[in-house]
C-alpha cells in the first residue's frame, strides 16, 4: 500500500507543473499556429480604419464619460435576460428596485444602534 501512496504523491507533484505550464504552452502554440488568425488578419488589413475604429469603440466602452458599457448592458444584455426570463418575476425596473447594498448596510447599522 505504501508504494501506491508513493506513486500517488509523485503523480500529484507532477500534475501541478503539467497543468500549470505544459497545457498553457501547448494551447499558446496551437493558437499561434492556427490559420484562422492569419486569414482574419489579412482580411482586416484591407479595412484601413479598422484599428482606429477598434480603439474608439474600446475607449467608448471603458471611459466613464461615455457610459458605453452601461449602454451595451441595458440595450443588449439586459434585454436578452428579460426576453428569456432570467430575471424571473422579481425583476423590477431600474427606478423601482432598491439598492441592495444600501439596504443591507442600513439594516446592519440600524440593528447596531438599536442595542
Strand content range:
under 5%
- The gyration radius over C-alpha positions equals 26 Å
Biggest beta-sheet profile: none
Unreliable stretches covering 5 or more consecutive residues: none
The tally of helices reads: 5
> What's the structural domain tally?
2
Q: How much is the average pLDDT?
A: 76
Number of strands: 0
Helix and strand composition category: mainly alpha
Q: Helix amount, in percent?
A: over 70%
- The topology string of helices and strands comes to HHHHH
Shape: flat
Oligomer: single chain
- Straight-line N-to-C gap: 60 Å
Keywords: Membrane, Transmembrane, Transmembrane helix
Subcellular location: Membrane
Main location: membrane
Membrane topology: Multi-pass membrane protein
Write up what this structure looks like.
The protein is an all-alpha fold. It is 75% helix and 0% strand. It has 5 helices and no strands. Belongs to the DP1 family. It is found in: Membrane.
Short description:
By secondary structure, this protein is mainly alpha-helical. The protein contains 5 helices and no strands. The chain folds into 2 domains: 1-33; 67-115, no CATH class.
Secondary-structure blueprint:
Elements: H1 2-33, H2 35-44, H3 50-62, H4 68-83, H5 100-114
How would you describe this structure in keywords?
transmembrane helix; 115 residues; mainly alpha; HVA22-like protein; TB2_DP1_HVA22
Amino acid at each position: 500500500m505504501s508504494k501506491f501512496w508513493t506513486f500517488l504523491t509523485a503523480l500529484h507533484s507532477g500534475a501541478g507543473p503539467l497543468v500549470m505550464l505544459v497545457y498553457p504552452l501547448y494551447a499558446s502554440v496551437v493558437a499561434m499556429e492556427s490559420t484562422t488568425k492569419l486569414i482574419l488578419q489579412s482580411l482586416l488589413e484591407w479595412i484601413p480604419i479598422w484599428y482606429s475604429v477598434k480603439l474608439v469603440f474600446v475607449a467608448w466602452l471603458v471611459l466613464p464619460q461615455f457610459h458605453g458599457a452601461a449602454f451595451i448592458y441595458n440595450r443588449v444584455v439586459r434585454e436578452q435576460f428579460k426576453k428569456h426570463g432570467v430575471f424571473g418575476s422579481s425583476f423590477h425596473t431600474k427606478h423601482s428596485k432598491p439598492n441592495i447594498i444600501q439596504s443591507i448596510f442600513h439594516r446592519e447599522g440600524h440593528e447596531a444602534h438599536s442595542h
